[in-house]
């Protein structure tokens, strides 16, 4: 069982299925929300994501139809959810367990922080494809 939590431990989750490929998102909203150069994410099927402490979650609609869920106590970004999709977008920084997923690509490189240089050799997509 894969486990994760927020910084203060109020929000916890377990993943009973597979964690999708890792994508590094450089869009402006991810950079602002995480206070970093990019956000590392992976898809998790809704039915494989079991959350506890949801009373501590707040959400913000960062773009039409996409809500970002974070702990109201410590601010940890836990996941995002787009309307009408069968999966959540897990913020990998909240993981407590190791995963065996593979890094796939960098997306929204067109909005990358000017001070950050990508050196990974992974594919780079100017937007999300």
Automatic annotation (TrEMBL):
This protein's UniProt keywords: Lyase, Metal-binding, Zinc
Stated family: Belongs to the Gfa family.
Protein name: GFA family protein
CENP-V/GFA domain segment(s): 2-117
Source domain of life: Bacteria
Organism: Bacterioplanoides pacificum
PROSITE patterns: CENP_V_GFA
PANTHER family: CENP-V_GFA DOMAIN-CONTAINING PROTEIN-RELATED (PTHR33337:SF40), GFA DOMAIN-CONTAINING PROTEIN (PTHR33337)
